[in-house]
Structure prediction request, 214 residues.
Amino acid sequence: MTRARRKLLVLLLALAVTAGAAPAAPAAAHIQVRPAHAAPGDPVLWTVLVPSEQETGTRQVELAVPKGVLAFSYEDATGWTRRLRMRADGSVRSIVWRGRTSADGLATFRFLASTPERPGTVAWKAIQTYRDGALVRWIGSARSEHPASITTVSASAARENAGGARAAAAASAQAPAATAAADDAGPDWVARGFGLTALLVAGAATIALRRRSV
Prediction:
């Protein structure tokens, strides 16, 4: 082996040892909402995982409930209070938990909510407030620095029916209000079309009668 090849081999070995000794970069601790997959129109037990990334710890978490997701029952988290923000149609717009964690603490919240009737994806946007007042908005895309947690609603996912028949009834009880609000969002063009046609026919008949009388 020539001297040049020996130097190259020693250099490669040194680089390999250095790379192996270097500490791995810590993974970002994101707010996550589980499960990641759920069936349409199914009452599901959701778990919110809130790790802390700062020395001051977390004091508040606000989780936006996606439209079409009907939250109706909540587990009491020890040391935390809970408040609901509502939409005009009576559904839950967001859930606010207040308490405190240590610097390396993990807060866990659970609640029951029914998934949307149609397949698709729902984004769980959240705002994490630390005890020193710092805010982290978990509202971005999957490739962003602060991504929102995503759940895929698919017919291939197993149904949970979490909470049983009573839970399903509680979830469905909220659905008519949301549906009514959606129906009131726009005019009934079909009914208006029939009404306009009737007026035109009546007007034409009136003109024809007047011409005959003359």
About this structure: The longest strand covers residues 43-51. The radius of gyration is 29 Å.
